[in-house]
Amino acid sequence: MAQPSSQPSPPHPSPRQQPPQHRTQRRTELAGFLRSRRARITPEDVGMPPGLRRRTPGLRREEVAQLAGVGVTWYTWLEQGRPINASVQVLDAVARVLQLDVTEREHLYRLAGIPFVREPVSDAEVVGEEVLGILEALNPLPAVVHNARYDVQASNATYQVLWPMTSRVARHDRNVLYKLFTVPECCSTIVNSDDELPGMVAQLRRSYGNHMGEPAWESFIARLIKESPLFAQLWASGDVAAPGRRVKVFRHHAVGTVNLSSSSLSIDGMAEHRIVVYTPLGAEDTRRIERLRTIPDPVVGCPQHGRPLSEILREKAEQSAREGRNGKIPLPQ
Fold it and tell me: Helix 215-227 and helix 229-236: axis angle, to 10°?
């Protein structure tokens, strides 16, 4: 996921400053982009009944307009590439309905000729207060919301104790797959990674079929292939799998191993997002989680490479501040 930042996108010519042929091409690209994003969202994804005799692969234009609170004629003209103006508020509403990620929103704004500012967002803004409340109510069971790319969108306090490096860091850094494939094996929190990682990559490939060619996905996968030979090997296998119940053997050197059964639950109105709840398999597993929760500043990593959590988080915050000042934005994760 691209890093939220208060820095605006690099300046680009306004629509009036561009040659006529460029303005026409930009409007054509905008129309095609909106149609392709609309086609991938089903009525069920936004909490609407599917209806009968639908010839449209995704939402209808009038449904997008209704959900975004804009006029049907105006949205139709926007998708037809007509020379109309769009405000920031209207584009935000359309992006929300079409469930665009940060990279897609930036692309939408550029095509519309409007400067885009990356705003930091809280977990509640991403998943909504209701879903965040469900996560907190599940304590002391660890629970998290993933998207299809394994970005951690929100999590509860117990999950943050077990996996702080994908929940307590900056939003652009919260990707489970990236962490699992790029940390040394001795520092990995998953003991049974030989069983778990192939299944996770297979689920990622299944979701990738809906996102081929999208910048955020392509850059994320290319980065993992480059940095992890194991990921490259598993990705090349072409295996696909659906989410389901799994058993993860979590390891922390302060408390030992914890056996967890994971259950994946879909979320109404949030396409390709799911709540994953981890249930300890035995009483000792529960006690070890509680013991870990009492450690004020646990060491992250193995005894050889591990460092206190507070030290790592401070270092990451300083790094993010430097990157923001230098205008650098990490690749989507």
Answer: 120
How far is C-alpha 168 from the chain's CA centre? Answer: 15
Rounded to whole angstroms, how far apart are CA atoms 2 and 219? 10
- What is the Cα–Cα distance from 42 to 49, expressed in whole angstroms? 9
What contacts 70, CB < 8 A, 6 or more positions away?
90, 93, 94
- Report the C-alpha gap between 157 and 136 in whole angstroms: 7
Residue 277, both tokens: 């709840």
Q: How confident is the model at residue 251 (pLDDT cuts 50, 70, 90)?
A: very high
Please tell me the total number of residues recorded for the chain in this structure. 333
256-266 vs 143-146, strand pairing mode: unpaired
The whole-angstrom separation of Cα 199 and Cα 244 is: 10
pLDDT of residue 101: 80
* Res. 51 pLDDT band, cuts 50 70 90: low
Residues 207/212/214/215 CA torsion (nearest 10 deg): 100
First-residue to last-residue Cα distance in the chain: 4
- As separate numbers, helices (DSSP H) first and strands (DSSP E) second, the chain gives 14, 7
DSSP 168: S
The pair of three-digit structure tokens given for residue 131, joined into one six-digit string: 């879903």
DSSP string, 110-179: HHHT---B-----HHHHH-HHHHHHHHHTTTS-EEEE-TT-BEEEE-HHHHHH-GGGTSS-GGG-BHHHH
170 CA to centre of own chain: 12
- pLDDT category of residue 320 using cuts at 50, 70 and 90: confident
Q: If you ran DSSP here, which 8-state letter would residue 248 be given?
A: E
Kindly report the number of other CB atoms within 10 A of residue 141's CB atom. 18
CA separation for the pair 323, 317 (Å, rounded): 10
Closest CA to 100 of 84, 87, 116, 81: 116
